[in-house]
Write a structure and sequence with these properties.
The structure holds 2 protein chains of 2 kinds. Chain A is mainly beta. Chain A contains 2 helices and 9 strands. Chain B is 71% helix and 12% strand.
């Protein structure tokens, strides 16, 4: 199965390519009052208002500044994820050290955090 | 000839010249003074006579005016015969100038007099007739009934202007004394008033008589005076002269007519008095002459003695001077010879010095030339340096421009890097899109990968260029530093050259001045040589002159010794 490999801190993170819309330079978010930890605010991506999450906080990793933003679409829900770098598209099984992200679980974590 | 006889002759000479002068002076002075005394007394007497005459004329005019006013008064009260005497008496008492005030009818009948006065009989008198005819008149002085009368008459007219009476006033002649007072005259002088027929009317010798009776007793209108004086006064006016007066005395006198009246005033002083003053003057003149002569004799004696003594002293000192001059002339001759030889030696020394100075002058000129060369070479070097400096500066400017270009290239490189990065990102997203498309997107994925690789290479090339530019920049900085250092060194070199040029100029100026000074010294030396030659010849002339002077002094000494024997 094809995946996009990004870096969050020292970790390689695999994102299923079906959930990835695009990768852009991290935009400046509009902060939300009373937002949960990890939610940086909202940004406009491809004409939509999308919540922007700190990837390290949402994945439970130690991350950097988050120079890039991965635009995900999971079950019709859009969200932005801050990552440090992009390694590229890969095929095949993941390496043992890679963090494999399940988009639905991620969405659930974000939803839980948001609620 | 002895000294004594010379003195006597000198004295005699002085006296012969001055004594006649003194005598002439004294005689002239005395004569002039005597005339002055005479003239002074005559002037004083004439003054007095004319002053007296004017006073009497004024007095008589005033009395005539008095009678005119009396006439007007009388005309007003003529009908009141009782009051007239009282009125006339009151008028008379005001000033008592008249002895009698009287009013008479035109036929001569008495109308009134002032109270107690003796009336005057006017009948047949010419002045009364004149008054009746309407003319104011004054009588001659005359004697009537033992009274001295001088009557002023004035017609009295009624309202129609007809003469209805005549007012008469008998003037008191005895009061003339008050008009003739003479403070300026000698004590013995006398002033008289005489009538036209040369009769004495009044004299100041009578003093101030109380009445006309006393005047008549003193001879008024009885004594005759010298008629010639009276005639002269009445015909030709004021004058003076010497004559014998009515007392038989020789007098100096002056006479003046009383204007408009037949009266003459004579002022006179005894001739003896004048003569005494003149005699006193003569005596003083003679005394002065004698004194002058004595003083002259004394002065002449002293003058002769002093002149002789002076001449003796003069000859003696001339002799001494001659001896002294001779001695000094001899000394001077010797000194001049010595001076001549000394100047010749000095002249040789001066010539030697001149030669040395000329050599010095030549060396100075050569130094000046060398300094001039150094200065011109320094100038040339400096011009070269300045040119190099300009080139250096232009090189420096070029390097700076180059650096600017490099900076712009760097900026462009940054843009290229950015573009490459964005292209990389676009390629990634394209690859993602292709992956999501599955089978359909595989061809597109290959293109996206190619694009991503191109972007990678662009970035690498840009990085390479960046490295090269960095190296170039550091090289350029080094070049600029080197240029700057060269410029500094050039400036230092220029400053040094300026110093050299200035020093060379200084050397040139100094040597020029030195040369000038040397030239002056050489000139001065030439002049000194010339002067020394002149001095030598002058010294020789002086020696000759001194010898001549010594001979002259010898002759003078002989003459002086001869003269000393004489005085």
């Amino acid at each position: 199965v094809r995946a996009l490999v990004v870096r969050v801190g020292a970790d390689r993170v695999r994102l299923p390519v079906a959930a990835v819309q695009e990768v852009v330079d991290a935009p400046q978010p509009t902060p939300l009052p009373g937002a949960p930890a990890g939610l940086r605010g909202v940004v406009a991506l491809r004409g939509r208002v999308v919540p922007l999450w700190d990837g390290a906080a949402l994945l439970g990793l130690v991350g950097g500044g988050g120079a890039l933003c991965a635009h995900l679409r999971v079950d019709g829900v859009h969200l932005g994820l801050l990552v440090d770098a992009v390694e590229g598209l890969v095929d095949g099984d993941p390496a043992s050290a890679d963090v494999v992200v399940d988009p639905s679980a991620l969405l659930a974590r974000a939803g839980g955090a948001a609620t | 000839v002895t000294g004594r006889s010379y003195r006597s002759r000198l004295l005699a000479g002085v006296l012969v010249v001055t004594v006649p002068l003194v005598v002439l002076l004294v005689v002239t002075l005395t004569t002039v003074a005597s005339r002055t005394v005479d003239a002074t007394i005559s002037d004083a007497l004439e003054d007095q006579a004319s002053t007296g005459a004017e006073a009497i004329a004024r007095h008589l005019d005033e009395r005539a005016a008095d009678m005119a006013s009396v006439a007007v008064l009388v005309a007003a009260v003529l009908e009141d015969r009782e009051a007239l005497p009282r009125i006339l008496a009151a008028r008379q008492a005001i000033d008592r100038q008249f002895a009698t005030l009287q009013v008479s009818a035109p036929d001569g009948a008495l109308i009134a007099t002032n109270l107690g006065a003796a009336p005057v009989d006017p009948v047949g008198e010419p002045w009364f007739t004149a008054a009746v005819d309407g003319e104011p008149a004054l009588s001659r002085p005359h004697v009537a009934d033992g009274r001295l009368l001088l009557v002023a008459a004035h017609p009295v007219r009624d309202a129609a202007g007809d003469v209805v009476a005549v007012a008469l006033g008998s003037i008191r002649v005895e009061r003339f004394g008050e008009l003739l007072r003479a403070e300026s005259l000698p004590a013995a002088a006398e002033v008289i008033v005489a009538t036209a027929d040369a009769r004495l009317l009044y004299t100041t010798d009578s003093g101030t008589p109380e009445s006309d009776e006393q005047l008549l007793a003193d001879g008024s209108l009885d004594i005759e005076v010298d008629p010639r004086n009276i005639d002269r006064a009445l015909t030709s006016g004021l004058g003076s002269g010497r004559f014998v007066d009515y007392k038989g005395q020789r007098v100096v006198g002056a006479y003046a007519p009383v204007p408009g009246r037949d009266l003459v005033v004579v002022a006179r002083a005894p001739e003896a008095q004048v003569l005494a003053a003149e005699r006193r003057l003569l005596l003083v003149g003679a005394l002065l002459g004698l004194l002058g002569l004595a003083a002259l004799a004394l002065f002449g004696r002293r003058f002769a003695a002093r002149e002789t003594a002076f001449l003796r002293l003069l000859t003696s000192s001339t002799e001494d001077a001659a001896v002294s001059v001779k001695r000094q002339a001899e000394g001077m001759a010797a000194s001049s010879v010595e001076l001549a030889s000394t100047t010749t030696e000095q002249s040789a020394t001066v010539t030697q010095t001149s030669t040395t100075m000329e050599e010095l002058s030549r060396s100075a000129a050569s130094i000046a030339d060398t300094a001039q060369d150094v200065a011109s070479q320094a100038d040339m070097t400096r011009e070269g340096l300045l040119r190099a400096g300009a080139e250096l500066e232009s090189a420096s400017r070029g390097s700076l421009e180059l650096a600017e270009q490099v900076r712009r290239v760097t900026a462009i490189l940054a843009v290229i890097d950015e573009l490459a990065e964005r292209t990389d990102m676009l390629a990634l997203n394209a690859a993602i899109e292709a992956a999501r498309a599955g089978e359909a997107g595989e061809g597109f994925a290959v293109v996206a990968e190619e694009v991503r690789r191109l972007a990678e290479r662009s970035r690498a090339s840009a990085a390479d260029i960046g490295g090269i530019i960095e190296a170039t920049e550091s090289q350029m900085t080094a070049t600029l530093l080197t240029l700057e250092r060269s410029a500094t060194q050039m400036r230092d070199g220029l400053a040094l050259l300026e110093d050299v040029a200035m020093a060379a100029e200084q050397v040139r100026l100094t040597t020029q001045q030195q040369q000038l000074a040397t030239d002056q010294v050489v000139d001065a030396m030439a002049q000194a040589t010339e002067s020394a030659a002149q001095l030598a010849s002058t010294a020789e002339e002086i020696a000759h002159g001194a010898a001549a002077l010594a001979r002259t002094a010898e002759a003078l000494e002989a003459s002086a010794s001869d003269a000393r024997q004489r005085f």
